[in-house]
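Per-residue structure
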Amino acid sequence: MIVAGPLDSLLIGLAALASGVFGGMLGMAAGIFIVPALTLAFGLDMTHAVGASLVSAIACSCGSAASAMENRLTNVRLAVLLEIGTTMGALTGVALSGVFPESALYLLFAAILVLSAHQMARKRKADLSPQDLTSPADPWATRLRLHSSFPDPLTRRDVAYSVDRVGLGLFLMYGAGAMSSLLGIGSGVLKVPAMDSAMRLPIKVSSATSNFMIGVTASASAGIYYARGDVLPEVAAPVALGSILGAYLGTKILMRTSNERIRSLFIVILLALAVKMSMAAFQGPASAPGG
């Protein structure tokens, strides 16, 4: 498919904007939303759609970064640390590529998504509680100065939070990177539940930090796709513009939405993707979500 004119570019840009809003809010690669739109609605082949989705991931990360950093949502120190685990996992996934049957990987990923949704559903309604503030701080988080705070416009006060179980978080990021590399999907869908449930971060901080990390990870892959000629400028340009604006708006919405509504939306997305992955296990890799 080649973009025929301004109308096609406008429609692709609007689709990317909508995808960017969800990506900016939930801290996951917008490719999960933009790849189906480009392939089903615009007839783009999967290779070019994934190339555009990587551009969307970088644009989404950049678009959300400005607003998130302005509102002190992104924990940059934590993001840099967790990228170590994600990168190591991605390298392991590349090494193991082709070793395991894809159908088994899809079913495993679906089970992980359901477990993540269950853990997020069990998490108490408030991101912080008196027990969180009085419990012993993780020594590694304290030594690396990972604890921080962010202003909550809903309560009009600064919310202090502690980073917990850094070792478990690194292990889960390793697994997220490996699964992402093995299945060719964005790892944000696993990063956010890991930070929210295992490391006990506020959901807003988890989403913003995940978005920051996604841009770093996607840049390397996008360069490879661009060198191979799989990034079409007539598609990537409206996707990038729409994603930047959508991610910026998504982060603004994130700041003004309650933690429980964000968590509930994320749980719905996790369960929907789990169903999609289960279907892909029996229908072949073409039905799996991209980006």
In short: Residues 6-287 form one domain.
